[in-house]
Structure formats: structure tokens, C-alpha cells
Amino acid sequence: VSMNFAEQSTSQDPALFHVAVIMDGNGRWAGRRGLPRPAGHRAGARAVRRIVEAAPSLGISTLTLYALSSDNFNRPPTEVSALMRLFAEYLERERRPLAERGVRLQVIGRRDRLPAALRTAITRAESATAEGRALTLRLAIDYSARDEIRRAVAASVASGTAPLGTAPLGTAPLGTGAPDPFAAWPDVDLLVRTGGEQRLSDFLLWECAYAELWFTDRLWPDVTAQDLAAAVADFRRRDRRFGRISA
Ligand code: IPE
Ligand code: IPE
Ligand code: MG
User: Fold this and answer.
1) Residue 167 needs a FRET pair 20 to 30 A away by CA distance; which of 20, 56, 127, 218 works?
2) Which residues are the active-site residues?
């Protein structure tokens, strides 16, 4: 079996359209209104609903939303715990409507530092929506791309099943029959960041190798379906070359 390096880097199947969003600006949105930061996060959850509803009609098959970075644990404990409660409430409230709309929900990131109530809400939502085929919605909670990569590499090395160097990363290691941890990480086609900053903040570093980047100053709670449509329209006009020359 020969490995084609040009095909290895990203999925180009037009039926698979993966959009990832760094939902930033909740705190500033609240601050401008003289509200406490958690009020901004609650408004952010309403924006999530709008964006999730709009995604399938824009051709999006996978939507990954950055809800909490591992570094966000460095915020005041009151804000962190307000976020944890908000996530659990969101999952409890949305589980059924998501299932009814054919949305499959998955949570990525560490779970061992989450409160038990949130872990339960996650498991329930994941199993209630497991049959969804209209959209895969991935929520990144206590997520760090570096941590995920570090763990995958450590696990591969420890198990000895996927010795690094026998196959290009992201392809199935040959002859071992072992699943490649990197293969489970879907390439991002379009990365959106709201809130004006232009950085990755440890989100999907591996998966964004060839992502198109789109930034807006709009604060996340103000984001509408029209903003998402504008990002997608922009994406459709881009020439993705993957290292080749234009067709
Ligand atoms: C993004 O909004 C949500 C989380 C990081 C949990 P922020 O809370 O970072 O909002 P700003 O950047 O302070 O405005
Ligand atoms: C990134 O936003 C994390 C999420 C949106 C969940 P931050 O607001 O935490 O990122 P920095 O600190 O500005 O890089
Ligand atoms: Mg921020």
C-alpha cells in the first residue's frame, strides 16, 4: 500500500464540511451592558442555538464549538462554576430538541475535571442524540489541543501499536491493525473566531492544518445565522490549494 502525501492532509469530500468556531466575546458583551460575565455566557448559549439551527442548511455536516479551554480553568472559580452549570443546563434542555432535529451531540476534551452533574448530562445527551445524522455537533469542554496531541502520542508509544515513523501521521499505521488516534480527528475546513482576536488559543491545532480562517469583531452573543452564512459564503470563494497549484 502506497501512501499519497497529497491525500493525507485533509478530506476534500464536499459532502463533509467541518466548521469550527471559537466563540469569543461573551465577557465583553456582558461588560458593555454592566452585567456580570455569566450573563454574557448565558447570552452566548442562545447564540449557540441560532448557529446550530442554521448549520445544516448551510451544508455544514460537522460543527465544533469551543465552549471551554483547559486554560479557562485559570479564571475565577465563580466564573468557571457558572459555566459548568450553564453547560449542564444547556445539555439537559437541548437534549430532546437536538435529537428531534437529527443532531448528534458529542463532547470533546477532558472529562475527569468536570463536575459529576455535568458528566451525567453529557452522557445522557450523547446517548439521546446518537442516531442523529443531520449534523454532528461537537462541544469542546476542558479542551486543549496540545494536551490531546500529547496524550495520543504518549498512548501510541506506550502501547507500541503505532510506532511513530512507520506511517505518516493521520494515516492508518500499516501492518499493526491498530486504530490510528490521529485518524479520529476530522480536518477543519473553516475556522471562525468571533470577538476580534485573531489567534487559535490551543483549539484543534492538528485539525486546522489546512483550515480557512475567518475572523469577525462581532461578539459571540451578537452572532446571527447571517454571520455564519457570510463566513460560509466567503469560504466558498476561497481557492484551497493544499500545496498544489491552482486548477
Ligand atoms: C468566550 O468568551 C467564552 C469562554 C471563554 C468560556 P470570553 O469569556 O472569553 O469573553 P471575553 O473574551 O472576555 O469578552
Ligand atoms: C478561547 O477564548 C476559549 C473559548 C472561546 C472557549 P479565550 O478568551 O479563553 O482565549 P484567549 O485567552 O483570549 O486567548
Ligand atoms: Mg475571550
Assistant:
1) 20
2) 24, 72
The per-residue pLDDT for range 145-160, each reduced to its tens digit, is 999 999 999 998 888 7
Cα dist. 26→37, 48, 206 in Å?
7, 12, 26
Whether residue 46 contacts residue 221, with contact meaning beta carbons closer than 8 Å, is answered with yes
Nearest residue to 194 (alpha-carbon basis) of 43, 80, 36: 43
What is the residue with the minimal CA distance to atom 8 of ligand 1? Answer: 27
Which residues lie below 8 Å from residue 244, measured CB to CB, with a gap of 6+?
Answer: 6
Q: Which atom of ligand 2 is found nearest the CA of 197?
A: 13
Q: Which residues surround ligand 3, an ion (CB under 5 A)?
A: 24
Integer CA distances (angstroms), 86 to 115, 136, 207, in order: 12, 21, 27
Q: Which residue, among 46, 27, 45, has the nearest Cα to 36 in the 3D structure?
A: 27
Spatial separation of the C-alpha atoms in residues 184 and 93, rounded to whole Å: 28
